């Protein structure tokens, strides 16, 4: 590993200690490379002490947004505020931000304690206090027993903990995490997920912006999730809001599993392939096209309100549930059914139903999608 990214990550952690309780405000930030806009007018506020996940597919602009907050890329438009302070023109090392990047970026030739102390030394913290702050950061990340090891003597998960300890050692008001778990294997990742959740609870004053493409990570850790796609913010809300009431098709499909079915608004509800489903349609005019969003686990087997008959085209056993794929007039409906004693067979005709309040109508004036 070269020392350059390590130096950059640590430089971001230097800066003033007076930014606790600050919160982040990203105000109309646009970033372009060679006239190619990769972040388009981003408006986003992270409240003091809040954990905000930036969730989206690869290339959607998440890391660029993080780097704009850290000061590693310069926006062509917009401003970044930490608390009331406009930091847009400040270099990274003067923003008082702790940052953890994907590949840990530890100095290979320094021991763990020296890596963690580096940011403190660079910002000329009082010498007498450095050991105490290093010990505290290592304690918080469960690495107290590893202070004298070198990075090569640590597992990937342990190296990541050291990187987090280094970011925390300066007691930052703002912590930026860029896909902190993506380099770990699945088993380590779930352990670190619990570890990060604990850290978040122990840092109630630190505002955290956490970049991830993993919805489980975002749903587990974040107070709110900002959903990004193609350089733009598509949706923002609590995990529950985004899951239960997504405002866009993109959010519905990216946060949790969703059936998205094309329907036509009628006077009574909506029409799905010739079947009438009774549900509120808000302001939508009869005849308008829309998309019906219904989560697979909210669909029941058998008769009920909004019953739909169709042919089973596929069955997947998923442990706790069976996932049935049912053809409804040419559209495929996925239903996750629990405790099916006698699952139907492929080719059987079944009746499925769902409650109107569990469905969300998107598009064509019925939502913002
Ligand atoms: P994400 O973090 O969501 O995966 P990024 O913010 O890293 O996305 O990238 C957004 C877009 O910007 C991508 O298309 C990427 O190729 C492009 N990009 C990122 N950094 C640079 C760079 N230094 N020069 C040119 N293009 C870049």
Automatic annotation (TrEMBL):
Residues 24-255 form the ABC transporter domain. Its EC number is 7.6.2.9. GO terms for cellular component: ATP-binding cassette (ABC) transporter complex. SUPFAM superfamilies: MOP-like (SSF50331), P-loop containing nucleoside triphosphate hydrolases (SSF52540). One of its GO terms (molecular function) is ABC-type quaternary ammonium compound transporting activity. The keyword RNA-binding does not apply. It comes from the Bacteria. Coiled coil: none annotated. Keywords: ATP-binding, Nucleotide-binding, Transport. It is an enzyme of class 7 (translocase). Pfam families: ABC_tran (PF00005), TOBE_2 (PF08402). The keyword Chloroplast does not apply. This is ABC-type quaternary amine transporter. It comes from Streptomyces triticagri.
């Amino acid at each position: 590993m070269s020392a350059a990214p390590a130096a950059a990550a640590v430089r971001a952690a230097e800066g003033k200690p007076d930014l606790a309780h600050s919160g982040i405000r990203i105000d109309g930030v646009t970033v372009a490379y060679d006239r190619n806009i990769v972040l388009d007018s981003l408006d986003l506020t992270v409240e003091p002490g809040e954990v905000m996940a930036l969730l989206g597919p690869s290339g959607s602009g998440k890391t660029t947004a993080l780097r704009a907050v850290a000061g590693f890329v310069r926006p062509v438009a917009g401003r970044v505020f930490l608390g009331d302070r406009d930091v847009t023109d400040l270099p990274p090392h003067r923003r008082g931000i702790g940052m953890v990047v994907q590949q840990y970026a530890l100095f290979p030739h320094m021991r763990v304690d020296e890596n963690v102390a580096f940011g403190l030394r660079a910002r000329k913290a009082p010498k007498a206090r450095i050991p105490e702050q290093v010990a505290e950061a290592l304690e918080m990340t469960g690495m107290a027993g590893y202070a004298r090891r070198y990075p090569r003597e640590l597992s990937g998960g342990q190296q990541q903990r050291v990187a987090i300890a280094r970011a925390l050692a300066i007691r930052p008001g703002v912590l930026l995490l860029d896909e902190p778990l993506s380099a770990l294997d699945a088993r380590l990742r779930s352990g670190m997920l619990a570890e990060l959740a604990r850290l978040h609870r122990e840092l109630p004053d630190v505002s955290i912006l956490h970049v991830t493409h993993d919805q489980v990570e975002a749903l587990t850790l974040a107070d709110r999730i900002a959903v990004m796609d193609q350089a733009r913010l598509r949706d923002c809300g609590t995990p529950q809001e985004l899951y239960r009431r997504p405002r866009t098709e993109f959010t519905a499909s990216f946060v949790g599993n969703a059936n998205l079915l094309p329907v036509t608004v009628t006077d009574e509800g909506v029409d799905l392939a010739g079947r009438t489903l009774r549900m509120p349609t808000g302001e939508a005019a009869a005849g308008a096209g829309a998309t019906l969003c219904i989560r697979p686990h909210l669909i029941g087997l058998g008769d009920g309100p909004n019953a739909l008959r169709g042919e089973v085209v596929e069955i997947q056993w998923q442990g706790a549930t069976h996932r049935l794929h049912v053809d409804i007039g040419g559209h495929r409906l996925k239903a996750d059914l629990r405790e099916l004693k006698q699952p139907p067979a492929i080719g059987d005709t079944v009746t499925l139903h769902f409650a109107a309040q569990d469905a969300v109508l998107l598009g064509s004036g019925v939502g913002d999608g």
